[in-house]
Amino acid sequence: MIKDNDWYQEQERLEQVRNKLQARMDELEPEVDGLGAQASDIRKRFWEEVTINTATDEDFEESFYTIKQQSAVLAERERSHKRLVQQWNNMKRLLASPYFGRIDFHEKGLNLSEQVYIGVTSFLDEDGLNFLIYDWRTPIASLYYDYSPGPASYVTPVGKIEGTMELKRQFQIQNGQIRNMFDATETIGDELLQQVLGKGADSQMKSIVATIQKEQNAIIRDDHHRMLIVQGSAGSGKTSAALQRVAYLLYKHRQTIRADQIVLFSPNPLFNSYISTVLPELGEENMQQTTFQEYLDYWLGSALSLEDVFDQIEYVLTARGSAGYEARIQGIEYKASEVFMQSLQNYGLWLGQEGMQFNSIRFRDRELITAEQMKTTFYGYDRSLSVVNRIALLQEWLLKELASLERAEREAPWVEEELSYLDNDQYAEAFRSLHKEKELLDLTEHYAVVREKITKQRRGDEGDFDYAVKEEQLLRRKVVKEHFAPLRRSVMKFKFVDVKRIYAQLFADESVYRERTNGAVTPPLWLEMCKQTKEKLANNELFHEDATPYLYVKEMIEGVRTNTDIRHVFVDEGQDYSPLQYEYLKKLFSRARMTVLGDFGQAIFLQATSLDADDSPLLRLFGENETRLIRLVRSYRSTREIVEFTRLMLTGGEGILPFQRGGHKPILVQTEGEDQRYSQIWADIEGLMAEGFDSIAVITKSASESREAYASLRVHGGGKLRLITKDTLGFHKGVVVIPVYLAKGVEFDAVLIHDASPETYAQENERKLLYTACTRAMHRLHLFTTGEWSPFVQALPANLYELRSY
Ligand SMILES: Nc1ncnc2c1ncn2[C@@H]1O[C@H](COP(=O)(O)OP(=O)(O)OP(=O)(O)O)[C@@H](O)[C@H]1O
């Protein structure tokens, strides 16, 4: 129990700090304005201050230096201005709620204890030495997250500091007033966390700096491993930890890492918008956000039409029973497997010996360089060279060949014809550029130009003995060069490699496939699978499951693209990526560290990778010594009742621990027929809204089920309903209908499962879909059926839910 006197003292200190903040802001304001004005003034008058004089080399040099100097002054002013604005903004953010924690730490060997107040950014007293507020990312602040009162230590760049924590206090401060204050005894944050978690869902994620848990702090501050893997149950704070980790890295390495050197791969564009405010809330710029799909589209999308991951999962979920379904499913699984990845690598070796496919270079309906010539040249190079190196040599050879073919082409009859088609303007242009070219080369020509100017008479080229001949030669050169330019460009872009055929020929009958891949095993429906793949390719289309392997093969031949600027890669929902995709990311971001966060319990795509199984390819990606695995088992999102209900849907889910926040048991609603279902869903939605819940989701298995539910619910009164599709870019509060795979990573106050019957969730891969859908709920969970319950629901003990029938 906190004493009145403590309240009084804390409020008093709070006021002092706020006054100092305000005073500093007032002090800074004119400086901020002044520097801003100066910078914009310099920008406006930039060209007034410099005179460009090119009369002599010296003049030119001088002008050049003036410009350089002037822009250096401008850049410095702009930098100072930016720094000040940031300081000012930081203080403004602190003003309403300067800190959220306090620890009193008695360092061993010293005879006094320090009061450490922790907030979203540091604030120093005027002397510049005394921290009135410590940034939550400072080494000393880690005490707050890692310890309860008692012996404690923290690590600084100069070593470990030991001592005793004498007090740990948490605050809720709003508009400059302490609303709540707790002294923690054991685990930190329970009371504060209770309050935070009890609130409603938001359309945007919030930062969790005030209540980071110890195991999350380990993720945030890990700075030693090349690969950090986090396997955490639904709602255990993986995404939150990832975002605070970004903020931590930006703070700790502020001299060396910029926000745009960090990239986060997220499950879908909706999720991007959901998390986009967390870092700005913490005073940091957002990292880059993308999806793997965007990468694929960027590198392959111009040549082929790619199926996206959502269309793929929609097919998996809705096309069962249709022709070719089983083969396609086997294909999806196989193409995401490590066996296939290995077979691609072996295929690369085979290609080094035989089987390369090239596109001949054609020009005006002629084959200038045939595919056969390329093949012979390619396999004529030293075979100990890698495929990539030999392709580079071939590219060089092709460019040389093109240059000599281009020379020969100048005499071709079509060139002559083309010359006669040149209109006057083109001729005049050619004439001008011809003279320009000559001017540079030819002193006499230079003289002629000057004379032409002085006498104001166009010079007579007639007097020039071979000028007409030269002119024609130059024009021919120009015309042919223009026609050859696209050929050169396409060679530079490796268009001479027929990647499509190279990829397609892998899908031959089993014995051929084995021969080309050093004996890789094939799935039972291999031939059907090959047929499907090749049919797609013939239409210049790619199944989603082929996109990464295709890109992999392409880069195996043309060389790997790398992005060395990126220093940290974050992969959220990491269970949904295949080993090949990880291999690809590792190569692409060759200098980056990786943080992968995911939950195998939510692996709803077929190309899933376990994050923490002993044989997980992820654990091997960077090797044991460079890898750390952290498991999170406590679920913070949902009430205890919801976690107890959902965890038993998973095999082995008993290990998931609920945070002690009580609520209602999930409700199972069984209705007579469809009409009854929709009126009941709508009645429940209205009831929930009346209780004050304003973020409610009706979750379906697929997009087609979403469309159906949306249409029916609108008939039953749901005018304010929104249908979320893969093209929806942002979230708003309200009632939405959404397929589960788009609800990944996000949360709602209340979730209504549209159809929890065995028709929808019965297969093993549907177990995780139902689990993922139900775990989106923070406070309330209702499930509906018009008949039986899904076996995953039936298997749950009856005391975990409430049953209603209509
Ligand atoms: N330490 C914490 N303090 C306050 N809230 C927390 C904390 N950890 C997690 N939460 C809250 O729990 C919810 C779930 O967190 P988050 O989305 O990060 O979990 P997740 O593991 O990524 O979930 P999922 O895998 O289900 O998408 C969020 O509302 C988040 O704010």
TrEMBL record:
It comes from the Bacteria. Gene3D superfamilies: P-loop containing nucleotide triphosphate hydrolases (3.40.50.300). Pfam families: UvrD-helicase, UvrD_C_2. The keyword Protein biosynthesis does not apply. Keywords: ATP-binding, Helicase, Hydrolase, Nucleotide-binding. ATP binds at residues 232-239. The keyword Methyltransferase does not apply. SUPFAM superfamilies: P-loop containing nucleoside triphosphate hydrolases. Residues 211-639 form the UvrD-like helicase ATP-binding domain. This is RNA polymerase recycling motor HelD.
